[in-house]
Amino acid sequence: MPAYLVAVDVGTRSARAGVFDTSGAMLARAVVPLALTDGPGARAEYASDQIWAAVCSAVQAAVAGSGVAPAEIAGLGFDATCSLVLRDRTGAPLDLGGGRDTIAWYDHRAEAEAKTCTETRHRLIDHLGGTMSPEMQTPKLMWLKAQRPELWSRLGYARDLADDLTARATGATAASACALAAKWPYLPDHGGWQRDFLAAIDLEDLLDRAALPDSAAPVDRPIGTLTPRAAAELGLPPGLPVAAGLIDAYAGALGTVGLHPAATTGECLTLIAGTSNCIMAITPRPLFARGLWGPSRDTVLPGFWTSEGGQSAAGAALEYVLDLWPATGLAARPDHATVLALIAEALAAQGPGFGAGLDVLPDFNGNRSPLSDAAARGVVSGLSLDRSTEGLAALYWRTAVALALGVRQIVEHLQAAGSRAESLAIAGGLARPPLLQQLFADVTGLRVLRSEAEDVVLLGTAIAAATAAGLHSDLPGAARAMARLATVIEPDPARRETYDRDYRVMLRMQEHRAELAALRG
Q: CA triplet 436, 440, 446: central angle to 5 degrees?
């Protein structure tokens, strides 16, 4: 009998579910929005019950749209952003305000606590590029203990969002090796939990208070089976094998592993381009590089190491440009496709110099990599009083160029640490337009690999689900069987000189921004 898989991806603003066959073809996909609350002080929160309700709606809609009978589904997998879910000792939501119990991944309220972690100079910090980020779970929990002691005294559970979803699905309170090694003070090559680090930052009671497991659940094995209650809510059969949860960018990296010629013996470099950008390097040996998260072992493929660079605002930066532009003569705010069409016309007429004189540092929500400066902010140089649609296209394009230059900077840091990758697999909403695919190839100088899959992050989670269900023998084998290479985009050497000059300008702008920050003290 045919076997099918359900994959769930909880992103920043929506929950997505897809139904796949064992060859990696997606039969249906459904999207349900999330209720996200942004607040003052760089805060952002969800309600985990609303996230679960959105997941259930998305799964039901995807299965209905696929035409697959629930009885034919053989496995289920979840991935999510590294948001932090908090519950009290009774299992109820730990109310941060307004019924919200989940701190969003990009929440930066814990910048001071992150600095305290960095100052310990513990070996854990070496696995975080030399700096603890406020996006990690440890500083957020330090903030909770210091700033909301009444909530800390009631805390009974803290999990990465993907682990919370697998717990709701199976009843198992295990935590995935992906989440623990990537976002928590857990080093599998140094005994697991770094208890001396937790003691140094006054969180020695964390493991007991948050009901955290002693060890990590491997990413290539099922974490449990679907409970009758969860099955009824999701519209799936009970007893279904459920894969260990994945962080969304790591699921995307898994979804592109099979595109690389030497995926299981060499190196894989992937750009997951969406609201934020994540550059993932999977290597057979650890790469230590300042400003890059990792290396973390066993987080995507067992026995391999993962290093992660990131831009906290990517698609979000381009959205910001569209929202702010005071263009005249427009009946409504233009969408991305409209502006990209304008850019394509301008590039055809003017070449890669279109928009020259506009230079952007797109760090509107800090610079995650390689500067590790959560307080950094965006800079635009060269603005005029131009309010035309062409002016909007120029600023949008130059912001996109700046994002590609930031990817190049991260790739160069990986190369300096020993990466030998010659190609870059690319996935995510920001990577769909061919114009931007070519831009990333031209700016980085790497061949860009594009998957046939419409949603590579969901595909990676389906690969994990297929392995958990025993439909493929291991993750590398599932990745090879379920991923298909659609196109290879070669860099255009004729554009190299222009982008080299832009890169030099970007590096100088970063220096100047640091000088101005020093003057302000």
A: 145
